[in-house]
Specification:
Layout lengths: L8 H21 L4 E8 L4 H16 L5 E6 L5 H12 L5 E5 L5 E3 L1 H8 L2 E4 L4 E3 L12 H21 L4 H9 L3 E3 H6 L5 E2 L3 H8 L3 E4 L2 E4 L6 E4 L4 H9 L2 H20 L5 H17 L6 H19 L5 H17 L11 H27 L13 E4 L6 E6 L2 E7 L8 E8 L2 E6 L2
Parallel strand pairs: 1-2, 1-11, 2-3, 3-5, 4-6, 5-8, 14-16
Antiparallel strand pairs: 6-7, 9-10, 12-13, 12-15, 13-14, 15-16
């Protein structure tokens, strides 16, 4: 016979309170729905691609509903772009690429990245396109260029087809550098929607279905919290120094620092700063289209400047160094894209500032060479003194704060002023001051 256990009123109340508290605790500690946001503003290169890849990995780990990439880029490196698009296409978290804010663009490599997203969106006043491949660095012949173009066209068509976008326009963006506005892109089915701001974008994406490698997923983005992914200080610094203008300035400062250290051994500080700047510059050069002839010309300029200190060339080496630096600066970056080259105004400013410094330094050196010697025996010639004893022909004179043995060609009385004509074995040859 089974025994029936009856709960008293107090026990039932206690169990209810415990269950109520447990439900609140579970709600309190349950992960809140949110979306992750990362901003990419600049050239697509090794640093920006790493930021995007880390953002995707982070979003997966913290169970974000979706990752939004706020994009503004003129383009970038093909290798970095392919790394990003490959990661987005195989991502287990939905990725929205939002070309924003107004005035932004998704150019060149940015077109590939935008089309690879699960949802592509643009803000009003933005544009997308001009994805024709360009060669950075070495020149290629027409056959090779055709291969590069065909490869890029095939790749962007594959991406557009996978995401259900307009493959014909995508191919035109590569072959004809076609570029369109946000509403033209929406009409041509290049993007999925136009949104005025991030909140409107997330509300518009709510309940949309996206295809992931693991299957189809419905987005729940309406009203969710936005969590901005912070870019590490390391990546921010590396992102800044990979700018061609910054890389060029770092290289120039590095050369000047090394010059100061070699011309003034033991100064230490200029050598340390110069070495650091050179290392950072060479790191930047890894992701930039460097012409090694330009690099060598700038190094040659440094050699000329150092030799000017060691050899009396009356400014010839300085002029050669300035010319070498100017030519090397103009040749240093080899790219048809302006965002992959140093600005001409920056180059002119750096060259003129360097030239002004060395012209000043050389001028001071020449002036010092022409200046009358004021020390040693040679410095005594021409000095005026006073006879401390009669000179008939030998005696003593007071010159330059010291008493010297002197000899004169004519008798000189004590107290008369004399002029030093020559110094011979610590004996002054003097004459009476006229």
């Amino acid at each position: 016979m089974k025994k029936i256990v009856r709960l008293t009123h107090h026990k039932r109340v206690l169990i209810f309170v415990v269950l109520f508290l447990l439900s609140w605790v579970s709600l309190l500690f349950a992960p809140q729905r949110h979306i992750d946001l990362v901003t990419i503003d600049g050239v697509i290169g090794p640093i920006s691609s790493r930021i995007i890849l880390k953002a995707i990995e982070s979003s997966i780990k913290d169970s974000s509903e979706v990752l939004v990439i706020e994009l503004n880029t003129p383009g970038g490196l093909d290798e970095s772009m392919r790394l990003v698009t490959r990661e987005i296409l195989n991502s287990e978290i939905p990725v929205i690429v939002y070309v924003s804010p107004s005035g932004s663009r998704a150019g060149s490599a940015g077109v590939f990245i935008t089309l690879s997203a699960h949802i592509a969106a643009m803000a009003p006043g933005t544009n997308i396109g001009a994805a024709h491949p360009v060669t950075l660095g070495a020149q290629v012949d027409s056959t090779m260029m055709e291969k590069v173009e065909n490869d890029a066209a095939a790749y962007i068509k594959t991406i557009a087809s996978k995401r259900g976008k307009n493959t014909e326009w995508a191919e035109e963006a590569v072959r004809k550098s076609s570029s369109i506005t946000e509403y033209e892109a929406l009409k041509l089915k290049v993007i999925d929607l136009v949104a005025n701001n991030l909140r409107e974008l997330l509300d518009s994406c709510d309940q949309r279905k996206v295809s992931l490698p693991s299957g189809e997923r419905t987005l729940n983005t309406k009203g969710v919290e936005v969590k901005r992914i912070r870019i590490s200080l390391r990546d921010e610094i590396l992102g800044v120094i990979t700018n061609p203008n910054i890389a060029y300035i770092l290289y120039s400062l590095g050369m000047l620092g090394i010059f100061f250290e070699l011309s003034n051994p033991g100064a230490i500080f200029p050598g340390i700063i110069g070495g650091i700047c050179l290392i950072l510059a060479f790191f930047s050069f890894q992701s930039l289209p460097i012409n090694y002839a330009g690099l060598l010309l700038m190094a040659l300029a440094l050699i000329f400047f150092i030799l000017e200190v060691k050899i009396v060339s009356h400014g010839a080496l300085t002029i050669g160094g300035i010319i070498s630096m100017l030519l090397g600066s103009l040749m240093l970056f080899e790219s048809p894209e302006p965002y992959m080259r140093a600005s001409l105004s920056v180059i002119i400013f750096v060259v003129l500032a360097t030239a002004a410094f060395f012209v000043f330094a050389v001028g001071m050196g020449l002036k010092a060479q022409r200046r009358k010697t004021t020390t040693g025996e040679a410095g005594m010639v021409g000095e005026v003194g006073v006879a401390r004893s009669p000179l008939k022909p030998e005696g003593y004179v007071f010159v330059h704060g010291e008493i010297w043995k002197a000899e004169a060609d004519e008798p000189i009385e004590q107290g008369e002023k004399v002029v030093v004509k020559e110094v011979e074995h610590l004996t002054l040859k003097v004459t009476k001051k006229k």
